[in-house]
Amino acid sequence: MKRSPLLVIFITVFIDLVGFGIVIPILPFYVQDSRFAASPSMVGLLFASYSLMQFLFTPVLGRLSDKYGRRPVLFLSIIGTGVGFLIMGAATTLWMLFAGRILDGITGGNISTAQAYIADVTKPEERAKGMGMIGAAFGMGFIFGPALGGILSRWGINVPLYFAAALAFLNATLLYFTLPESLDKNHPARSAVRFGLTEMWGALARTRLGLIVAVYFMLIVAFSMMTSSFALFTMYRFGFDAQHNGYIFTFIGILAVGVQLLIVRRFVHSYGEMPFIVCGLGLLLTGLVAIPLVGPAHGGLVALLLAGGFVSIGNQLAAPLLTSLASKSVGADVQGGTLGMLQSLGSLARFVGPVIQSFLIYSATAAHHLDDHSLRVTFWTAAAITFVACLLALYLRIRTHAAAYVEANLPATSGSG
């Protein structure tokens, strides 16, 4: 009985991420269309505006889903996403483009609600698989979304945006007619205390959850810097257009799905999250260091796909499993609020990353033209942030092992005394 709602959630997140994935390969080219005539640094600010709104409104959606249910929040947020894509597709000025991204950001913080739905209907020992399912939906969204964005851009750079709007409305219709509510009247979340800033900082003060969130935040900052820079990098270094970038992101998405199906679903239950989180961060670090070294004369497309594959696999190993760890660190009554907080901070990270990227590119370029120096600085700054996240994850793993050892030996120690 639980399997059907989870399938609907998977389809919902998948369609949502197809729409999101469509934007990634075309946005850098769309911004530089003659209607807008924006500089390369403006790409980062567009990504950042969306994420800033998600940061501000994701906790609100989380609290509303705790109080009124997951289903209505998911439905209304997807409708807002569709309207945002329509505005972007019809945009004739830069402010309209920002308006569409901002509206999409306000209503687009629904992944935490989907995660809370999964937390409602899964047991703690099955939580990693459930969160991994969202990771797989992310990956499949990145298989079909960027490919569709690249292909549809052949008929007009704004055509993919109208297609994404249609997908969002289709998604809302599917959810409305097929998804049951996961919260009954007696669920602890219905009567939970409001999860505001005070509660958020109180939760982060718990060392374990605070470390998990810190690692997650840095991971997302680094990955979002790569995401907002990658199309600019391939355009400058390889001369790729939106269609080429769509195919590359499709390849990255295939790897992401493979990670979820072949690794997360099979082995995390036996070995726990932490080894895979540390491994994922290490792969992400390797990819971020390697990408700026790649060019037509230095490995070519094969090397680019290999480095991008490291980034994809690393992110897909670490991000969903950090979410799983966070959900296990709190009670059922604040699942929506906590996961909303985590996704809100993730949105803040997606704001911080592109802003850093825009600053680095703007500061290192002359006359708004990209150069090798600005690209290297951007990717290697992301690599440095990932390195710090690796150190924190290693510390968290050591601390977790030590706590488990003490807990396992505490009864024997007490008995001998």
Low-confidence stretches: 412-417
Distance between the termini: 50 Å
Which CATH architecture is right? Up-down Bundle
Rg on CA atoms, Å: 21 Å
User: Helical content, roughly?
Assistant: over 70%
The total number of structural domains is 1
Q: What would the principal axes of the Cα set say about the shape?
A: globular
What does this structure look like?
- The protein is mostly helical and 417 residues long.
- The protein has one domain: Growth Hormone, Chain: A (Up-down Bundle).
- It is 82% helix and 0% strand.
- It contains 14 helices and no strands.
Features:
417 residues, globular, mainly alpha, Growth Hormone, Chain: A, disordered C terminus
